[in-house]
Amino acid sequence: MSARGMLSLVGNAVGGLIGWSESVPPAEPEVLRALFTDLGVRVGPDEAELTEAVRYFQTRAGLPVDGEAGPRTVHLLARYAAEAREINLIQAA
Fold it and tell me: Which Gene3D superfamilies did the record assign (predicted)?
């Protein structure tokens, strides 16, 4: 199992323990870019751009800023992206 896969597994386990009802998506670059796209943020293919986007998100969300997409960061990013998708659906109706 890859390190990212292990982090995702641990994140889901921790999330279940602290009451996150939805599973945390994997911290894969493609998944993170898709979540940022849902928030209206375009992140290029460069790893440095993705790290900077994660740092900016962590700052805005009040998380410790380390540029790493750990379970807490990914959970909040996924939650905010889902809310953004819902708002876009409402506005489109």
Answer: PGBD-like superfamily/PGBD
